[in-house]
Amino acid sequence: MAKIGLGLSDYWLIIRKRKLVLIVCFLGIVSSVIFQVRMQMPVYRAVCSIRLIERNSVSDMITQMVTYTSYDIMASMSKILAGRPIVEKVVYELGVVNERSSPEEVNNAILSIQGAIRAETEKGTNIVNIGVNYHDPVMVAKIANTVAEVYIR
Predict the structure, then answer these.
(1) Strand spans (E) along 54-101
(2) CB 45 within 8 A of CB 132
(3) In Å, how far are 1, 12, 17, 22, 147 from 7, measured between CA atoms?
(4) Average pLDDT, whole number, for the chain?
(5) What is the tens place of the pLDDT at every residue in 15-58?
(6) Kind of pairing, strands 44-51 and 117-121?
(7) Is 95 helix (H, G, I), strand (E, B) or coil?
(8) Could you give phi then psi for residue 42, rounded to 5 degrees?
(9) Which of 27, 54, 48 is nearest to 90 (CA)?
């Protein structure tokens, strides 16, 4: 009967014969992983929570009881918190740009900070968490707090 395929001893012989190639490949992969990990920039996260209070008059409350609104006020407020008008004021207040900056610099700063901000509502509450992911540990806290302050103003 003819032997088909390789056995365990055949594989062991191949590994022993190619051990230099295997060692070089292993060391190359390990060293590239270590290099990549050391080159990564850390990302810091800060979260600022604000409570939104909707002030209504008596006529507004009666109107809300009679009519049905299909929108979620908390979701709308979350979008406004991370929107361009708020972030533009934040950029100027933090001193990232000033009045003499070119429109392109202002736009780049706004897009950079706007991409770092995530506003999410707590389920069943009127609390919005403003989360910021940024590479600078001091700036991440300043951005979160300044967004809240600008919105409150």
Answers:
(1) none
(2) yes
(3) 15, 9, 16, 20, 66
(4) 84
(5) 899 999 999 999 999 999 999 999 988 889 999 888 877 666 66
(6) unpaired
(7) coil
(8) -70, 150
(9) 48
